[in-house]
Amino acid sequence: MNDARLILASKSKARLAMLTAAGVAVEAIAPNVDEDALKDGLKSEGITARNLADALAEAKAVRLSQRIGEGLVLGADQVLALEDGTMLDKPADPAEAIAHLKLLSGRKHKLFSAAVIAEQGIAVWRHIDVATLSVRMLSDSFIEQYVESEWDNIRYCVGCYEIEGKGAQLFSAIAGSQFTIMGLPLLHLLDYLRIRSILPS
Known about the structure:
Elements: E1 6-8, H1 13-21, E2 26-28, H2 35-44, H3 49-68, E3 72-82, E4 87-88, H4 94-104, E5 108-119, E6 122-135, H5 140-154, E7 171-175, H6 178-182, H7 186-195
Parallel strand pairs: 1-2, 1-3
Antiparallel strand pairs: 3-4, 3-5, 5-6, 6-7
Helix pairs in contact: 4-5
């Protein structure tokens, strides 16, 4: 293996935990990207959910790579879209989480998880994966109790769920990788890290 280091351009505990659990040596550094402003600008141009996830992941990877100048920098992002193209962001407060779950109830949505690796300020690898999730019909009382008990766990989660926890109770069917749902196309990323000799093949 070579001595190149992998830096995660994020302070996401979930993504860091995924990489660490998979045996990847990684350090996390905040990319200092104004995601909200970038997202608003791209949405105003009519960008699709898939391309938005990709653009946000690239912005994080490239910005941090330009700043630190060494290693492989991994940027990642996830966007949720309903079947009509409506995109949902992370909830600002419990009331918005309740509103989001009422909107998702009884409907399908897609999660687009993008990962981009930058080196010397240039994107050198990318992958966007998608999962389709069917939310069962949720009663108002279930939603309210769920948000009350899980708010601290879901406040940073697009869609208001952790699939690896009580969020599993929201769904009637899921098509796609659990890693993708958790926010990273992990298996494709591991393939690239083997190609780069950061992981053993």
